[in-house]
Each structure stands twice: as C-alpha cells, then as structure tokens.
Amino acid sequence: MESIIESPSVVVCRCSPTQKATVTDLLKKYRNKKIRVCAIGDGGNDVSMIQSAHVGIGIVGKEGKQASLAADFSINQFSYLTRLLFVHGRDSYKRTASLSQFIIHRGVIISVMQAIFSSIFSFIAISLYQGFLLVGYGTVYTMFPVFSLVLDKDVPADIALLYPELYKELAKGRSLSLKTFSLWVLISVYQGSAIMYGAFVLFGDDFIHIVSITFTALILTELLMVALAIRTWHTLMVVGEFLSFTCYILSIVIFQNHFDIRFLESWSFIWRVVTITAISCLPLYILKYMQTQFKPPIHEKLKQYSTLK
Hints:
Elements: H1 2-6, H2 17-30, E1 38-41, H3 47-52, E2 55-59, H4 66-70, E3 73-75, H5 80-120, H6 131-138, H7 143-147, H8 157-162, H9 165-168, H10 178-202, H11 210-229, H12 235-254, H13 261-265, H14 267-294, H15 298-308
Parallel strand pairs: 1-2, 2-3
C-alpha cells in the first residue's frame, strides 16, 4: 500500500472491479487532499474504478461503451488524453476561474454601492436601484460579456502541448484561491467606492439623477473590466460587449419614465461619467501593464517567444 500511495501513477490490471475501486479509494484517502485522482479505463470491469475517482475517463474500445458511459469524459483513443488534459482541461480551469471571479466582482461591487448609498442616508432601507435595473444588471446588461470569458484562452493549443509545464502550474491553484478572491473583493470595494463618491463629488447639484449616473458608470466599468481580463479576443466577445451596451441604451429609450434622456444626452453628464469610469478602471489597466512589462506571467513569455520564433 505504501508503494501505491507514493506512486505518481498506478496501473491496475488483472484485478477484479472491486480491487480496482479499492486502489482508487486508497489513493483518495491517503494522498494529499489537494491531489485529484483520475481513473482511465476502457472496459466494463473499469466502471467501479472510474466512478470511485474524482475524475473518470472512459475510452471507447472493443470491449464496448460501458466505461465511456460511466465516465465524466469519453475519448476514442488513449492518445487523445494529452489534448484532453493539457488543452481542454487547462482552458476549462482558467475559464472557470475567470468566470467565478467576475461573478463575485459583479455582485460585490453593486453591494458596496448600495452600502455607501444607505450610509449617506443614515442607513435607511432605501434601494439604490429599482427591481428591473437589478434584474437587467444581472442578465442582459452584463451577461453576454461575462459569459464570453468561456471562449478566452491564454495560450494557443500548440503551445500548451509543446510546454506541458503549463499544466503543472494548475496544481498550485493560483488562478482561483483565497488570494485571488480577496484581491477581487478589494477591487470591487475600490470601484464601488470610486463610482459612488465620484458621483457625489462631480454631480453634487444633480443628485436627483444619482441612479442614472452611477448605473451608467457601473455598466461601463463592468464592460471595461471584462475587456481587461480577456487575453485572446474572439469575435463573439466583441459582439457581447457591443450587444450589452446596446441593450442598456435601448432600455433608456424604452423606460423614459425612469431616465431623463435630456440629462443623459448632455455633455456635462457624458464627460463626468467618463471621468468616474476612468477613475475606477484606469489604475487597474496601469497595474496590469506594469505587471506585463516587469513581471509577466509564464504564458505571456511563451506567447512572446513563439511570436519571435
């Protein structure tokens, strides 16, 4: 058992299905809790092992499709495992991390704005935004750009296959950790505060339009933050950004009872909202540029190297 636990990979053959599943359970129980066990099989006697592992991969072969149907992932050849792990698996983890962070950011920033608004009015239970704005913020106004992150990739597939060390970076869990969560919470607090206090300072005489001012700056901030996080642009990402902003413009025209169009069309409103948005986003763009120049991540180095090569 000690040899099995210390082994980086284990091949189990000429064993019963129960014995294969037992080996998988031993690895899950006695190895480091951060390690995930992946079981690969191609026959019906591998079903128990596949289902016992954290991740099961079934190979469609001469022995039938029992393993394939019971697995989390199905492949036709064992050689496809390399691309499944190093390309699709890595991209899936990176995209899931980005999507989770933006969902956190989208919820925290509007909560911070509501908290600041309530504190100014002695914590009276007054909602900053009405119901349709909150629903629109979580759906049509920000949904398309945020979910377009599932198309993002930091390096092309050929580079990911050429440098398998990139996959090893995932084991450190740096893309989605307590550190990144805390960082995005701080970003949300800063941006929410910048939008609210910027609106109070620049629009002191037009406080009656606080909803239109802050909500417009909030939508622009979200769209710019998604653009900041994208590493490889896709056509649908551009469409998502444009479509979300267009939906917001159309809602202003449709819900004229809730928006003062004359005020929104004024130059005074436009330049001040642009200033508030720049204050909330520009420092992050500068920090990202400085990081790319002085301490670029490994995928940026590989992309630059492949371009020069």
